[in-house]
Amino acid sequence: MTPLPTGTVTFxxxxxxxxxxxxxxxxxxxxxxxxxxxxxxxxAIADHDGVEVGTEGDSFFVVFPSAAGAVGATVDAQRALHxxxxxxxxxxxxxxxxxTGEGTLGGDGYVGIDVHRAARIGAAGHGGQTLLSETxxxxxxxxxPGGVALTDLGEHRLRDLSAPERLxxxxxDGLPARFPPLRTLDATPNNLPTQLTSFLGREREIAEVGExxxxxxxxxxxxxxxxxxxxxxxxxxxxxxxxxxxxxYFVPLALIDDPxxxxxxxxxxxxxxxxxxxxxxxxxxxxxxxxxVLAVLDNFEQVIAAAPIVSDLLAGADGLSALVSSRSxxxxxxxxxxxxxPLRLPDPRHLPDLASxxxxxxxxxxxxxxxxxxxxxxxxxxxxxxxxEICVRLDGLPLAIELAAARxxxxxxxxxxxxxxxxxxxxSGGGTNxxxxxxxxxxxxxxxxxxxxxxxxxxxxxxxxxxxxxxxEEVEAVCGDGLDVLAGLESLVDKSLxxxxxxxxxxxxxxxxxxxxxxxxxxxxxxxDAEQLRDRHAELFSNLVAGARPHLLGPDxxxxxxxxxxxHDNLRAALSRAIERADSERALLMAAGLWRFWQMRGxxxxxxxxxxxxxxxxxxxxxxxxxxxxxxxxxxxxxxxGDTLAARRYYEEAIALFHGLGDRAGEAENLxxxxxTYAIPVGLAESDYPKAQESAAAALAIFREIGDRxxxxxxxxxxxxxxxxxxxxxxxxxxxxxxxxxxxxxxxAFMAAWTLYTLGLIHLLQGKPTEARGRLDEALRxxxxxxxxxxxxxVLDAYAxxxxxxxxxxxxxxxxxxxxxxxxxxxxxxxxANRKLMDFDPGHLRTDAATADEWTAGSQMQLPxxxxxxxxxxxxxxxxxx
Length: 882
Prior knowledge:
Radius of gyration: 34 Å
Number of strands: 16
Structural class: alpha/beta
Distance between the termini: 33 Å
Oligomer: single chain
Helix content: 40-55%
Shape: globular
């Protein structure tokens, strides 16, 4: 494939005008016509060194290294198309648009405003017409092909573009030279304002809103301040001008606060004058009779009482459609709502390459607005992560991103990111020619807040205590003191200050964008009830942890783990509140209750740090049972992150505490955990098999003494690990099978999975690859059902070791690349010890030229792909032997 040129290039867009009519007329013969059309275009492209970027149906997107080459190709193509004996009486006429600009690569093609400009120039023409931008004309004016001239068509406003473009037409001897008026914004009566900045992205939203506008005569775009509702309305209206031959009219309502003035304002924008004692509605209806008109009613929220006027106009004028931007719906019959989403965002944890990063709408907007104040600004390896994080922290809100980008004049992206803790203060200083509410983020949000009644304002402030959202029951428990919560939530959603989605089992869940929440936190502080709300919130979510804890190792663990995952931000906030208030018992119990969730869902480092904070509180000795539970949790997480020495210390602390409480089960549980720190140590610790055996045997004796069948199975599994570690595989297999029988009897899938994993390792070392594969498959499916991330990490590593032993180094490399990425994201640190026992070192697979690409591919796979790849049936013994 020919590489795409960069630097200064010339873009060409072409398509057949009336292709749908041709298809309907020719039916099956259209395929042959289209093939001949493609051959003619491609021949002209090839003769002038063009590169085909993309083809869709009858459309071509082509790039040329020179403007002269692009113009030469269009002349040759138009002449050949005109001379072709087409098998139809309908014209086969192709419109072409040419523009020269910056060729910036992104994703699979080009990105940037110059591509959009070329496309809009092409869309403005008619079949057989070739249009050139002023930039291209200036480059080719003195070197046109023979028999070709240029006609200046003047300045035209093109859809989606901020400034008018001077267009020129190629006049080719022997070909038609007279065409209807260009399809630009100037061709239809309108008062759409010229935008001073370009409009980026939103192609999906423009298409969706445009399609809805075809069937809905009243379409309301809703969203909080700064979402970009007005700009989206203008873009949709600009693209729809052909459907409204009698006019597209923009009606700004932001400066009106009297609903009685709405009709008069609409009449004014339509160009109507006062007359004859008739009401404004009567004059508008008389004017619109038999006309097809689109009215863009902008910022309707503060005159929402005027909604019946819109209903009257739509009922009385069949050709009228209304496109409305508002922070709340109008609640009219026949109204279609379209909630405007934030801009598309990258994942800061998994950044794509720089070219692909620039294709994200939020990043593209940041970069363009930054260049407006610092022309040399560019995304590079040093600032890419900060830019992505800024866009995410600002919820993808266009206004917020524009205000942040304006700070690039004095602050680099990393410094802007560091100051986003007070984003409402930082994000000010918008253009003075903008409405006051759009000059600061706080002003944009306050515009919506100031229209709330007292009950809604109180609930708005109170809801800020939730981090990451909440369901109705949670809001009622924390914020429902004297409030009709259900009605208030509906009202705040209606006004775009909350968003509604589906939570657990489809129950409604409500969320507040982070930028809006910052403002709500300020309002809660002003009202003086923020501390009381935080205490209620902490109590609610500590109770959730207590309720979830007994289920996290049971057969119904998946929905409980998912619930904790959904509420993780709220749980973090509740635990922080307990630590902040030195509520040591609550902090210890929450940390202890969450440790299995943190372990299974890959929050190991975070969980260990939070437990350490709880254990550092001064009065933990007053709560020995909570202290013991937290010490056990700290030991478990320390072991999982690979700090064996810390794990031993915490296990010994927990054993002493449980012994002092007379809690035999707790003492046995920690003896069981302690055995692993001696059997399979990582980090600086050394193996001590006698101590491992002694601890596991002591745990087994206590569990049998108290009749704890599940504990007995776990202690047998602990013995298995000790025997596996010291290469006593027969004894390890025997105890594993005994433990597995107990776990299957108790329907304990969690422990069954870990026992199957250990059996898989034993079979691997016994040289039984088929048996090993079977055990690992069963374990991985159990972990997948629970979304147990740390379980994935160890089992997938065993798959990699098995693949290398089978000689399939490429498969081993791909799996090892995936494991490395999962280790990094989850903090799991146990694989090195198991690799030592399996005599498996994957490091050479990453550096070997024969397997390095597979390693990289594995590191970029998404988790569902990794699981499917691991479980795919690959015949053992079929690998390429190393």
